[in-house]
Amino acid sequence: ELKVEQNPLFLSMQEGKNYTIYCNYSTTSDRLYWYRQDPGKSLESLFVLLSNGAVKQEGRLMASLDTKARLSTLHITAAVHDLSATYFCAVDKTDYGQNFVFGPGTRLSVLP
Amino acid sequence: NAGVMQNPRHLVRRRGQEARLRCSPMKGHSHVYWYRQLPEEGLKFMVYLQKENIIDESGMPKERFSAEFPKEGPSILRIQQVVRGDSAAYFCASSPIGRNEKLFFGSGTQLSVL
Fold first, then answer.
1. Is the N-terminal amide bond of A8 cis, ω within 30° of 0?
2. Which of A63, A69, A83, B22 could share a disulfide with A47, CB 3.0–4.6 Å?
3. Does B45 contact chain A (CB < 8 Å)?
């Protein structure tokens, strides 16, 4: 059974600091997705990583995928308050469709 | 281009009643997925449908839950004889094709069972 873990689960950081969120998964997959969710809101797609070594960047966020280590990272550079949200990684467990297995989420609070 | 539309946004039911949740995918999307999110948890896959077909319902409870995506109209997630444990946020997502595409999520339906 595919399991997806994230750490940390809670992260409180000051504006301007850097930090990394880790996503580990238990079985082979080369498709990993990062989503953001604000409280009471839906999920917003951040990154789609489709191969080993994939790296994508958008603003202060950068995501990477190491399929051999079964690890993805979401790096935050010079955090700002607007990044406060819950971040989920998801791994596609099938060869068809999108039966995503989501991690438990990392709740990020960026403090002034 | 409207996004994934879910309604109602909030639904309150008493134990034993039926809950019907609706989802209209984005225009041009023929794949619909339902996920459930319990408080403080990640999303759990329930069911994957294409028009008139259930492709994967491995995450759906065997009893009381059913889903459909008819040729015309929205996808419906139906929960019969609701219990308190069914209280959760139910998210619908759609995609244009079946693989390597990100999912577009609706705003969700918050179901509260009294």
1. yes
2. A63
3. yes
CB A76 within 8 A of CB A12: no
Question: pLDDT tens across A82-106, in order?
Answer: 999 999 999 987 666 567 889 999 9
Encoded tokens for A13: 């950081």
Strands (E), A26-95: 32-37, 43-49, 55-58, 61-66, 71-76, 85-92
Pairing of strands B10-13, B109-113: parallel
CA-wise closest residue to A1 among B72, B44, B39, B40: B44
Which among B33, B42, B56 has the least Cβ separation from residue A88?
B42
Give the whole-angstrom CA distance, residue B104 versus residue B94: 5
Reading the block at residue A54, the tokens are 């994939």
